Amino acid sequence: MGQNSKNIQGTSLKFCASILPAISKYDVPDRSRPNFGSRWSRALPARGGRYKCGMAGSPILFIEELRAAVEGFNLQREADGMAPLEIECFLALNDDDPEALGLLKSHVVPLTAAARAELPKLHLEVGYFQKPFAMFYPEVKELLAQGRYQNVLFNLDQYGHSDVGLTTLSDISSSFASAEVLYTFGISALLAFLRKSNPQLSIRQLGFLGATSADLSALEGQMSKQEWLGAAERLVFESFRSCARYVSPFSINNPDGWRYWLIHFANSYRARQEYNNVLHRNSTMQAHFGRSGLNMLSFDPRQSENILYLFDVSGRAAATRQLLEDIPRLVTDFGDVVGVGEFYGSIYNMTPAHMDDIYTAMMDNPDMQVLTPSGGERRRANTIDAGDTLRMKRQRSFFPIFLLKREQKRDD
Q: Where in the chain do CATH 1.10.10 domains reside?
C-alpha cells in the first residue's frame, strides 16, 4: 500500500481492484497511495460512490489516489532520469442494487474519462457488475485469470458476516501471487455463526468474560470493556487465520463498544507491513488491546503490559520499549542470527508496530547488529534491507535492558 517507484522493475504495471460495495459506512479515509506490483487489480462494492454529505466513497477515492500515485511516480522518475511508468488498471465495481449502481456509474464515468485524457500513461478500465457476491466472484476471478492479473485487492464491505465465506477468502489468497483483502463485518454476526459452527472456540477465548455455549448474547454488555476487545481480537484471529498468511484482527475503534471489525488479509509480509503503516497514518481509526511489541495476541487480563493501542504517538513509544526486548529474544530463538526478510516474515502476524519503530529497535539495541550482504554493519535504520542479516553480538551487555526495566517502572 505504498511503494517507491524506484523499486518497481521495468516501466509497465498491470493490476486489478475490486470493490463491493462502492461506498461503505466503515470506509477508512486513508489518502495513501495504493500498492503496485507488476500487474494489479481491485474489486469494490458500489453504493453510489458518495455519501449524502458529498464525501467520496471507496471507488472515487481509489481513482483519485491512483491518479495521484501515477503522477507522483512519474514526476519522481523524471527527476531521477528514469523512464516513466505505464500503468494498466482494471477496476471492478459490484452492487446488486441497480439504482445504486447507476448512480455510481454517473460519478465514475467522468472521472475515468478525465484520467484517460490527462494521464496518457494510465490505462484505467472499469467494469460494472450487478450480482450477489456468490455469483460475482467466480466471474471476476475468471476475468482476472484471462487478463493474467496476479496483483489484486478486494474491498469486501458487508454489514453482517454471511455475504463472503471463509472458503472465498482463502481462495482469493491462494489464487493470486499478490492478494490483499479488506473485509468488514459485525462481531455479533460472527458470534452467532460460531455459536452454531464452533462453540468451543468462543468459550475458550471469551469464557473469562462469562460467555457460555447457551448464551453468547450476554456479551453485549461487555463490548465496551478493553478486556473484551483483547479477547475478541484473538477470537477473530483464530476464526480467520487459515484464510491468508497474514491476518490483522483489529477492530474499528469505538470506545462505546467494539462491535465492527475491518480485517486486512495478505499473503505477503510487505503488504501487512505497509498496512500497519497506514493504520498509524490514520491513528485512532482502529484499536488493539494487548501487547504492542511482538506477540500482540498473548493477551492475559492479569498482565500490566496490556494497553489500548490506537496506533498513535503514545502507543508507538510503548511499542518501541517492548520491541527493544522482544526482538533480541526472537533472534535468540532463531539461533542468534536470522535474515531480515525471514525475520519480517515471522513477525508481521504478531505485531501492530510501525515499520520505523521496528527498524529503530533493531538498530538501538546494544546487543544486536544488522549486517549487509557484504558483511558490513548498518549504521542507519532507514537503510535496512530485507537482504540484510540480523545477528546477536558475541559480546553482550545486558545492563541497558535492566536500565530499560527501571525506566518502565518509573513510567508506571
A: 318-411
- Which of 43, 276, 260, 63 is closest to 172 using CA atoms? 43
pLDDT tens column, 215-259: 445 455 555 677 777 777 887 888 888 999 999 988 888 877 767
pLDDT tens figures, 341-362: 999 999 999 999 999 999 999 9
Rounded to two decimals, what is the model's pTM? 0.79
Strands (E) across 299-375 are located at 307-309, 337-339, 368-371
Distances, alpha carbon 293 to alpha carbons 169, 233, 345, 383, in Å: 28, 16, 15, 22
Put the strands of the sheet holding 389-392 in their side by side order.
Answer: 337-339, 389-392, 368-371
Q: CB under 8 Å to 334, separation ≥6 — which residues?
A: 342, 343
Cell numbers for 173: 489468497
Three-state secondary structure call for residue 330? helix
What CATH code is assigned to 318-411?
1.10.10
